[in-house]
Amino acid sequence: METRSLLDRYEGFGNWRELVEHLEQNVETLGDPREQSAMHIRIGRIWEEKFLEKAKAVLHYQNAFKLDSSSAEALQNARRIYREMGKPRMIAQLANL
Questions:
Q1: Which residues have C-beta within 8 Å of that of residue 20, sequence separation ≥ 6?
Q2: Contact 23, 4 (CB under 8 A)
Q3: How far is 72 from 97, CA to CA, in rounded Å?
Q4: Is 97 exposed, middle or buried (0-12, 13-18, 19+ CB in 10 A)?
Q5: How far is CA 47 from the centre of its chain?
Q6: Please, is 55 exposed, middle or buried when counting C-beta atoms within 10 Å of its C-beta (0-12, 13-18, 19+)?
Q7: What tens digit of pLDDT does each residue of 29-85 get?
Q8: What is the value of pTM for the model shown?
């Protein structure tokens, strides 16, 4: 089965665990850093929205920003989570990036 249709099936049936595992295993295979960054943002959203795992989500947002420093979405998401977690030092560190 083609990877794209497999991912669509996971998402369509709400198989979030399988989807996030597949994405995490394959993010490094994407050749373009911007594509990898976008994938990390997608993974972060799944961890945050479907599993309420903010700590895992923020790691993916950070990875996304490291791969593409022009990604405002990754930076904003990481800052928001750190604010919600009450970690002002981490917000300040992100402000220096």
A1: 43, 46, 47, 50, 51
A2: no
A3: 11
A4: exposed
A5: 8
A6: exposed
A7: 998 999 999 999 999 999 999 999 999 999 999 999 999 999 999 999 999 999 999
A8: 0.87
Q: Is 50 exposed, middle or buried (CB count within 10 Å of its CB: 0-12, 13-18, 19+)?
A: middle
All residues at 6 or more sequence positions from 69 whose CB lies less than 8 Å from its CB, including other chains: 97
Instruction: Please report where in the chains the tokens 């993010």 appear, as a residue.
Output: 27
Q: For residues 5 and 19, is the Cβ–Cβ distance under 8 A? A: no
Q: Which residue has the tokens 């083609």?
A: 2
Q: How far is residue 75's CA from residue 62's CA, in Å, rounded to a whole number?
A: 7
pLDDT at 1: 37
CA distance 36 to 29: 8
